[in-house]
Amino acid sequence: MKQITIAGNIGKDAETRSTGQGDSVTSFTVAVNDRKKNTTWFDVSLWGKRGQSLAQYLTKGGKVCVSGELSTREYEGKTYLQVNAAEVTLMGGEARQERQEQTGGGRSGGGYDDLDDDLQF
């Protein structure tokens, strides 16, 4: 088993779909840039209720950190990198700023703002 942790920007809004056996899977893409500004794309799958719950926050332009099992698939001569996510951490980003502008910048508008806790350590 190959484990990977990536951090990058969400390429398009997450989509949740049902499988034939009653399970659900939430899919989204993550773009990771290296120091030379090369971009590597990952197709991410998050299964079950966690994926359903997080889908509304996994929007294009948002920053995310994903840990899970790495695999590859071949299609029409291209290799695609896939991550079966075990953990997903929302890190904010453009989607958060846009949502704050739409809701007047307040904390009651939903979206990422609901996840902000003022924890003291």
Identify the CATH class: Mainly Beta
Give the CATH superfamily: Nucleic acid-binding proteins
Radius of gyration computed on alpha carbons: 16 Å
In CATH, the architecture is Beta Barrel
- The CATH topology comes to OB fold (Dihydrolipoamide Acetyltransferase, E2P)
Largest sheet properties = 5 strands, mixed, barrel
Mean of residue pLDDT values: 82
Structural class, please? mainly beta
* Share of helix, binned: 10-25%
Number of helices, counting only DSSP H or I runs of 4 residues or more:
2
User: What ranges have pLDDT less than 50 throughout 5 or more consecutive residues?
Assistant: 95-117
List keywords for this structure.
6 strands; globular; OB fold (Dihydrolipoamide Acetyltransferase, E2P); 5-stranded mixed β-barrel; mainly beta
Explain this structure.
- The chain has 121 residues and is mainly beta.
- Helix content is 13%, strand content 50%.
- It has two helices and six strands, in the order E-E-E-E-H-E-E-H.
- Strands 1-3-4-6-5 form a five-stranded mixed beta barrel.
- The longest helix has 9 residues, at 94-102.
- It is globular, with a radius of gyration of 16 Å.
- Residues 95-117 have low confidence and may be disordered.
Short description:
The protein has about 120 residues and is mainly β. Helices cover about 15% and strands about 50% of the residues. It has one domain (about 5-115): Nucleic acid-binding proteins (OB fold (Dihydrolipoamide Acetyltransferase, E2P), Beta Barrel), CATH 2.40.50.140.
